[in-house]
Amino acid sequence: MLATLVAAALPLANAQENVFTFGTFGNPVALDPAVVTDGISLNVSNQGCEGLLSFEAGTTNPTPNLASSWEVSPDGLTWVFQLQEGVTFHDGTPFNAEAAKYNFDRWRLTDHPAHLDEEGQVFEYFEAQFSGFDDSSIISSVEATGEYELTLTLAAPLPSILNNLAMSNFQFASPAALEEFGASYGTPEVGFVCTGPFRFVEWISDDRVVVERNPDYWGEISGNLDQIVWRVIPDNAARFAALQAGEIGRLRAAQRGRHPCAGKQQRLLRDLSPVLQCAVLRLQLPHCRVPRPAGAPGRLAGH
């Protein structure tokens, strides 16, 4: 369960401009969903970036997003996606099949000029979900077969392909922005340049990240927010105090049950929501061999 606390009747940071402020415990790693794995980064970029598909709310069912429809060949190797028309990136450049192909090539091909391996960018999720890069990838080719038609050819059937493509890590960035900013794309100086309902305004490290409503958004934007602010408050008690004072409208509790008084206060609500997440503990160890128990089959880490 994901525990969040919500101010039910407290003023927002700037009610006149419909600003919602979320209290978070740290900075994003980067606002480039293709190269990150952390929740803070994706919580921000999800407000402004989109992929071919997304997930139906509260489920793992893929649903159309920048792809309006798709067809698959009987052998499961060729996927043809029809793309939304009239979509532009936040910099005003058009979204079309060539722009989508550019992003796939960036993720997939290590010699692509925007792959930028030498700059330390690691496309972990593409490598994991599509079996590697270049000739190792299960995606053997990506072609713009029409102005708004994208064709993916696979080396073998991939039953999970639609769910994979609905993941946040496969959202599209403006090719023009990627070429202009290079390794600086996704940093506090640049942020994201995507197609979604909110566009990047500023990122001040250890202080705040701000996005604003995109007046040129191709779809409908639910709600009436003009801005969303993520305010960085690392200390749990200070973050909760900011919620009580009305300085923020919502926070994610560090521990379940951390604030037992919250549910008893008239203007605070505790929201316990089921989530599709897991916690990962990574250990960086010197090279070593792990002894295998007698009679144990297979291999263990380190062998």
Structure summary:
By secondary structure, the chain is α+β, with helices and mostly antiparallel strands. It is built from six helices and 13 strands.
What does this structure look like?
The chain has 303 residues and is an alpha+beta fold. It has 2 domains: 81 residues, D-Maltodextrin-Binding Protein, domain 2 (3-Layer(aba) Sandwich), CATH 3.40.190; 207 residues, 3-Layer(aba) Sandwich (D-Maltodextrin-Binding Protein, domain 2). A hairpin with a 5-residue loop joins strand 5 and strand 6. It is globular.
What topology does this entry show?
Elements: E1 2-7, E2 19-24, H1 39-45, E3 53-55, E4 62-64, E5 67-72, E6 78-83, H2 97-108, H3 124-129, E7 139-146, E8 149-154, H4 161-165, H5 175-181, E9 198-204, E10 208-213, E11 227-232, H6 236-244, E12 250-252, E13 268-273
Parallel strand pairs: 2-11, 2-12
Antiparallel strand pairs: 1-12, 1-13, 3-4, 5-6, 6-8, 7-8, 9-10, 10-11
Strand order of the largest sheet: 9-10-11-2-12-1-13
> What percent strand?
15-25%
Order of helices and strands: EEHEEEEHHEEHHEEEHEE
Mean pLDDT, rounded to whole units? 86
Number of strands: 13
Give the full name of the CATH homologous superfamily of the largest domain. Periplasmic binding protein-like II
Mind summarizing the main beta sheet? 7 strands, mixed
Give the overall shape: globular
Under CATH, the topology of the largest domain is which? D-Maltodextrin-Binding Protein, domain 2
List low-pLDDT spans. 7-13, 295-303
- How many structural domains? 2
Question: What is the CATH top level name of the largest domain?
Answer: Alpha Beta
Structural class: alpha+beta
Q: Measured on Cα atoms, how large is the radius of gyration?
A: 21 Å
**Second-tier CATH architecture of the largest domain:** 3-Layer(aba) Sandwich
Span of the ends, CA to CA: 36 Å
